[in-house]
Amino acid sequence: MIDVINLQKSVRIETAAFRAFVKTLNATLSEIAGHTFTVAFITDDRMQQLNEMFRGKDSTTDVLSFPHEPEPFELVSQGFPPNKGGVDAASADGVGLSNEQGRFLGDIVISAEQAQKQADENGLTVENEIKQLILHGLLHLCGHDHETDKGEMNKRELELREQLGI
Questions:
Q1: What is the pTM of this model?
Q2: Maximum mean pLDDT: which of 60-64, 84-88, 140-144, 148-152
Q3: What is the full DSSP assignment across 28-50?
Q4: Residues 136-153 pLDDT 10s
Q5: Which of 13, 65, 92, 163 is deepest in the core (most CB within 10 A)?
Q6: pLDDT of the residue at 73
Q7: 87-118 exposure pattern, b = at least 16 Cβ within 10 A, e = fewer
Q8: How far is the CA of 37 from the CAs of 40, 105, 120, 122, 156, in angstroms?
């Protein structure tokens, strides 16, 4: 199951629309077939706290992705032997790791306030801005990194935006 939850009240969010969108993503992106993830809408204040805690940046941002990294006991329970380095090399890409709903990729958090601000600045609806942020965060969960990949993630994201009509 892919969860979409609203943990803020600053911007009106219709989670049902985004639940439908992530189902479309699940059917469209071959990289995530059979995987699950969570999308959470939060406030700017909470996003600033997370950005500082995990990236050392004392400012808010629009989207953060938190890839799931299994604990050693999860690996053992899935039949992977523990190793001295922690995560077993055979499971580093998530192969063989599953929960009841499928393999868990991780969490995407979105500042609803930043999404609203960026939508206004870019002449988009808040819904389309959020869809773009979900897609961006999901590509990060799949291992893409626009800071180091020489434009590959950006190219893939633009192709998917066109394919998805966002």
A1: 0.81
A2: 60-64
A3: H-GGGTTEEEEEEEE-HHHHHHH
A4: 999 999 989 888 888 899
A5: 13
A6: 55
A7: bbeebeebeebeeeebbbbbbbbbbbbbbbbb
A8: 10, 5, 28, 27, 19
- Burial string for 128-162 (b: 16+ CB within 10 Å, else e) reads bbbbbbbbbbbbbbbebebeeeeeebeebbeebee
DSSP one-letter code for 107: E
- In this model, does residue 99 exceed pLDDT 50? no
**CB neighbour list of residue 97: distance below 8 Å, 6 or more residues apart:** 70, 74, 75, 78, 91, 103, 104
β-bridge pairing 3-6 and 63-67: unpaired
What was the pLDDT predicted at 16?
A: 94
